[in-house]
Amino acid sequence: MREFSSKRSVDEALIAIVENDSCSVDAIQVVTGCTFGKGNLIFKDYGKHVYTFINRETRDALRISLNSSVNLEHMDPTWSRLRRKVTSGSATSVEQQDFRKRADIIAEKLMNMSEEDLFTVTHIDIADVPKKAQIFRSVTCQKCGELVSEHRVRLENGEKVCIPCSAG
Ligand SMILES: [Zn+2]
Q: Which of 44, 95, 96, 151 has the fewest beta carbons under 10 Å from its own?
């Protein structure tokens, strides 16, 4: 990432492709300036901790993948069990305290790991560099009457409908 951000002349020259929608993507937006609004943050719903950064000018692409050894559930199974209780709201205050303490310890461990232990970083070839943000026309869904971007419209019995209104 460091080698990449130094090359960053214009924000829009950098594209981030993220393969999950977890809070890690918040960090990527803050650190890289790639956002949905600028059209340089691309979400692929693969549920993987994989992040690809493309420099549009040099066409250089870095693929960063979290190593499978960095599995928090394995690092501390008790933390993992407590997390489920905390998330579901069934944790006692003692369990909540224990959860936070364990989270701090895990965070400390992660911060002390080397980049190599955390991630596998590879330079890859990107055949098609994603195009700059496009502006799409809006059309009115003929079922719900709400505006929908033209490139997401489905045709159903000759009617233009939005995805939630379409039969699937
Ligand atoms: Zn609709």
A: 151
